[in-house]
Amino acid sequence: MTSLTISTPCDWHVHLRQGETLKTVAPETARLFGMCMVMPNTTPPVRDIDSLFAYGRECGNALRQTPLRAVFAIRLDDRTTPELVTECKKLDWAVAFKLYPDGVTTNSHGTGLTTDVLWNALTDRRSRLYEVLVAMAECRMVLSIHAEAAGLPYLQSELAFLPWIANVMEKFPKLRVVIEHISTVEAARMIRADTTGRLAATVTAHHLLLSCDDVFGKPDHYCKPVCNTNEHRSAIRELVFSGCENVFFGSDSAPHPRSRKTPSCCAAGVFSAPVATETIVGQFVEVGETARLNDFLSRNGCRFYGVQPPTGSVTFIDQPFRIVEASTHPDGFASFLSGQKITWRAADRPASQWHREIE
Ligand code: DOR
Ligand code: ZN
After folding, report:
1. Rounded Cα distance, 39 and 44, in Å
2. What local confidence, expressed as pLDDT, does residue 262 receive?
3. Is residue 86 within 6 Å of ligand 1 at its C-beta?
């Protein structure tokens, strides 16, 4: 196979950041995607109508010359109200509330969603979070979850969070839930076993490619949840390549400057926008499942969220290129797979500043 055409893809989980960083990284997502869901863990976070509109405007300006449509997740925290949920539902560009357990990842401090608060909400009908979940279920606002229990060894934290998700699905029978960037056998199993159609997962390129052995000593590979053992990675690969319809791509592309990606100061996040899609295409070709690529990259997410998919298509050709070396970005952003040769490239699309021709 030397070329492959898919419908314009969607990235259902991306960190576009703010200010100059936003201006630098947004074109990388706009290069290939027709739609993306932008995460709210900014400073200050996107957690009310004012911050949502301000951030929506900032992203809109950065994307003005591009065909990329951005939709947004709003941070769910201990001050979110049912009224905010219904207000946001009226906007067709606010499509999910994102739950971060307090402190588990970059800029997730101060959500107030401790283990006690989360579990209490499942039984205490007068708690704020219970009322918010009722409102979300009623108006079909998606609950997007960073599924890690706080205070546990990293490789156990996702598994420990899954019982809360199972409970919330049962207590709120209309609620639609996405487990973000799954990293375990158990999460993959839970998606497969779901019979309600209300439970979905996003999968990143790096969780398909890396195991925990690839993370030790490699700050650029450190993210939350951390890539788990090969057994877990294989289960996620099987789920994705099996064509499960409630599984879709979310890059979790999360740039951090090089000065924050050193062994002594290591922020969680893999900046994958320059290479994630090309890598996903390569993976599907390698396992012979290209017939399922379109659903994973372009269709499943839109169906789950109930949004119109972008129009058009992208053609990938078998013409290798290289990702620039991390060292060429003194305090810029090192791309995932820096220095490596990548087989598939998008034809007729704007160039990425992280790509180089092979000499
Ligand atoms: O690795 C991660 N980085 N995981 C997240 O959940 C947040 C993200 C970031 O914002 O850097
Ligand atoms: Zn993320």
Report:
1. 12
2. 86
3. no
